[in-house]
Amino acid sequence: MSVKSEPRPAATIILLRDTMSGPEAFMLQRTRSAAFLPGAYVFPGGALDATDRDPRAARRVLGVSDERASAQLGLDSGGLAYWIAAARECFEEAGILIASNAAGEPVAPERAEALAPWRAPLNAGERAFAELLEAEDLYVPAPEIVYY
Questions:
Q1: pLDDT per position as a tens digit, 6-40
Q2: Where are the beta strands (DSSP E) in the chain?
Q3: What's the pTM value of the predicted model, to 2 decimals?
Q4: What is the Cα 51 distance to its own chain's centre?
């Protein structure tokens, strides 16, 4: 029996880095108790949620407008939410904060670590990613998130 489902808007982010022995990709392992793909290795990501479309979050994105993001994705509008979702999911799932200050300078690792207490309320839906960005005066550096 085949179960059909509607695709949901989602964003997945692939984190890469160069090393002396070649490029490395960051992956997570799903818990063995997960209902979907237990134990599988995955890239951080997931469905867009309403907070990804929050105008407060959109004001906290550097370097890409909604018009440009939407054009890249072939959408009429709302494309910027995918960049926001990618950054949010990466922080929620992996604790890796893709953020900068207003000048585009990356957040220092020790500051990013200090923001870890935000993860639980974000994952529980008790806080919005836009709240974190506003409270900590952070921005999503959209040019660092490349659409493929």
A1: 889 999 999 999 999 999 999 999 999 988 889 99
A2: 10-12, 16-19, 22-25, 28-29, 41-42, 45-47, 61-62, 140-141
A3: 0.92
A4: 12
